[in-house]
Amino acid sequence: MTDIRQGNKSATEVLRISEFRQFITARFFYIMAMRMITTVVGWWIYELTRNPFDIGLLGLSEFLPAFCLALYAGHVVDKSDKRALLLKTTMGYLLCVMVLLALTLAYTGNHLGRSRLQWLIYFVIFCSGIVRAFAGPSLNAIIAQIVPREQLSSAVTFNQSTWLTASVIGHGSAGFLIAHTHYATTFCIIAAYILIALYFLFTLSPKAKMVKTNDTKTLDSIMEGIRFVYKTKEVLGAVALDLFAVLFGGAVALIPVFARDILQVGPVGFGWLNAAADIGSITIILILTFFPLRSKQGRTLMYVVAGFGLCIICFGLSTWYVVSFIALMCSGLLDGISVVIRGTIVQLKTPDNMRGRVSSVNSMFINSSNELGQFESGIMAKLMGTVRSVVFGGCMTIAVVAFTWFKAPSLRKMEY
Q1: Whole-number Å distance between alpha carbons of 370 and 95
Q2: Which DSSP string do the residues of 128-172 spell out, in sequence order?
Q3: 52-90 pLDDT tens trace
Q4: What is the pLDDT of residues 228-282, one digit of tens each?
Q5: Which end of the chain is more exposed for a tag (fewer CB within 10 A), N or C?
Q6: CA gap 156, 160 in Å, rounded
Q7: How would you write 193-239 as a 3-class SS string?
Q8: Contact 121, 329 (CB under 8 A)
Q9: Which residues, at least 6 apart from 53, have a Cβ–Cβ distance to it below 8 Å?
Q10: Cα-based angle 224, 226, 227 (whole degrees, multiple of 5)
């Protein structure tokens, strides 16, 4: 009992750092706004077109800039004051929300027409992808400048808990707002959340640049980050496995189709389906906060990714709302374990002066794969049908784990 109390105390010690509390508060409102946009725009596009492929194009719109700019963004993050960069990117995201708000107005819709409105939405999401290319690495890299190294593991876990809690509330509340209010009202609330995030980011102190501007050329700096990830096999293996799992297991992208056409639930049911995976993730991450994994993390990573694939298959085959919800919630629970293992490895293995570049490479592997997976899901749904495409994705996820199990024994045996 004494050991448990001491473990709980050490796990929450990081919350005594006032700047860390301010940071996770800002991150909470920022992520909640971002997830609300994902939910609202996904439903909006499908309502406009009734075509799953168009949801895939939405993912591609955000993937392209986030992926293409990721490596350069990492270089910029490492040589910048991360607080100042976060303030700029958050204001850029606020601008994107204001444009989306303008597009919801009846006057705008009547003068643009459905086709032009659709492509303007894609353009705004493309611009948000540019913002995200710089914001994501900044949010990850700044943690090490706020908390001591010995508390990084706890900080990563709390950071993920904050992300997932915000994601659950963002998805769920967005579905409720779509059902009971207008799109314009929803985007006004999203804008308010971003303003709150801006306030708390502003309260952080300026952060020192980890790399001097004239130390290295841009291309050399970028290549240094790539070489580090490639040589650090624990980091490379963990993020590569997650990449393919997210890429093939992107069933969440087709939730608007399942909600409207297969499960036949309204916007509220759609919002909760969107939140189901995050509910599972936050549940397991809260457990891991107080009872962290002590051994065999690499083997555990492979088990949970394979289980994630099985959950995606169950979701694809289900025609009952409750079963679909549980399948997605279990997929999130397993994914949460994967996120904690991968996030801890990246934070512990990365030197302070390379955190921006390594976070950007990580973003290319993981974050951008969400949007690429959304595009892949849209294409496969068009070619194979919605249900078959989701089942195929789950099967491919399991196949990737089986391949990795035999081809990457060092990852399977990895411990920290």
Answers
A1: 23
A2: HHHHHHHHHHHHHHGGGGTS-GGGHHHHHHHHHHHHHHHHHHHHH
A3: 778 778 878 887 887 788 778 777 887 788 899 999 999
A4: 777 776 777 777 777 777 777 666 678 888 888 888 887 778 878 877 887 888 7
A5: N
A6: 6
A7: HHHHHHHHHHCCCCCCCCCCCCCCCHHHHHHHHHHHHHHCHHHHHHH
A8: no
A9: 378, 379, 381, 382
A10: 65
What does pTM read for this prediction?
0.70
Q: Which residues touch 279 (CB under 8 Å, ≥6 apart)?
A: 168, 329, 332
Sketch out the chain's domains with CATH numbers.
14-412 (1.20.1250.20)
Q: What gap in Å lies between CA 103 and CA 111, rounded to an integer? A: 10
Q: Which two tokens stand for residue 157?
A: 């876990």
Distance CA 233, CA 231 (A): 6
Instruction: Tell me how far apart the alpha carbons of residues 193 and 30 are, in angstroms, rounded to a whole number.
Output: 7
User: Hey, is 11 helix, strand or coil?
Assistant: helix
Nearest alpha carbon to residue 3 among 293, 290, 283, 288: 290
CA 338/CA 317 separation, integer angstroms: 24
Is the backbone of residue 50 left (phi > 0), alpha (psi -120 to 50) or beta? left
